[in-house]
Amino acid sequence: MPGMTSAAGTSATGAPAPAGPDAVTIDNFAFGPGSLTVTAGTTVTWTNKDEEPHTVVANDGSFRSPTLGTGATYTFTFAKPGSFAYVCSIHPFMHATVVVTP
Asked: Would you give per-residue pLDDT tens digits along the chain (102 residues)?
């Protein structure tokens, strides 16, 4: 929802979606790209472009967005290397991965 703030370091807003290599788009019930590789310390931003609400939830519990309405964003900073699979908890057929390198 626009203007909603979640846990420290994360936000869900109706602000314009950032574009670039560290951005994930939620569109047509899919995360794009399906696999994103970043270096440790990178902040990734997800933007919901669907008309339906979605979430971004790590399989290992390391991050969890609030419910994102149309145009809302969620950011998370990946501090440690690893492979982080995630899903939309509302639509569990939606899944993707962020790979974090040192």
From this structure: 333 333 333 445 444 455 678 999 999 999 999 999 999 999 999 999 999 999 999 999 999 999 999 999 999 999 999 999 999 999 999 999 999 999
Residue 29 near residue 52, CB atoms below 8 Å: yes
The string of DSSP letters for 15-36 reads: SPPP-STTEEEEETTEEESSEE
Tell me the three state secondary structure of residue 10: coil
Strands of the chain, DSSP E: 4-5, 11-12, 23-27, 30-32, 35-39, 42-48, 57-58, 73-78, 82-87, 95-101
pTM score of the predicted model: 0.82
